[in-house]
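Q: Hand in one record:
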Amino acid sequence: MKPKPASIPAVLCRDLWKSFGEETARIEVLRGVDFRARFGELSFIVGPSGCGKTTLLSVIAGLLNAERGSVELFGENVAGLSGRERIKFRRRHLGFVFQQCNLLPALTAAENAAVPLLAAGWKRRAAIARGTELLVQLGLEARVRAFPTKLSGGEQQRVALARALVHQPRLVICDEPTAALDHAAGEAVMELLAAAALRPDSAVIVVTHDTRVFRFADTIAHLDDGRIARPKTPSP
């Protein structure tokens, strides 16, 4: 019998090691990382530039393989899945916001936001209506029919966030989601992420340098020198 979500972490990383390069050019980016994210919480990972935060997110998401260690999502070891199973698992359970938005240029903002629902078999009208609803919450009501080339970097980032949240994934992973946003837009983004994290069967992990939004975090883990410190609860 599988444990109930409340009895296991949403994400559990044990002794993760990851390096890039060969021989004298080899750089160890992750050096025995232990990390967990709990259901119903918004977890931040912070640290200096180049310390491996994006690499850690990519390993958690199954986009990169660790050389040693394990990653469990919702109690399941994702390394044990085949390539096809891993893709299906990500499509169903994960939402991503990476620094490269990767919007589809031939689709409008609303259509881009609706892509996960369309891939899951939703009717086109219902999927686009749900994508539009999220874009409005993010202050993009005047841009829902715009194509990516007509959107600013910050607008593209918000469309990518809507796309990540539209199918209500169990785990949302965000890399600097407020970096290109002003204060008001950043607040709107974090409020949506905080709401997503409140669901008892979901979790949100955010990598950020933006100290303005630290107050939204339930826990903050510091990554440096390839290792992660014990997560801390932010001061009120």
Observations:
- The first strand starts at residue 11 and ends at 20.
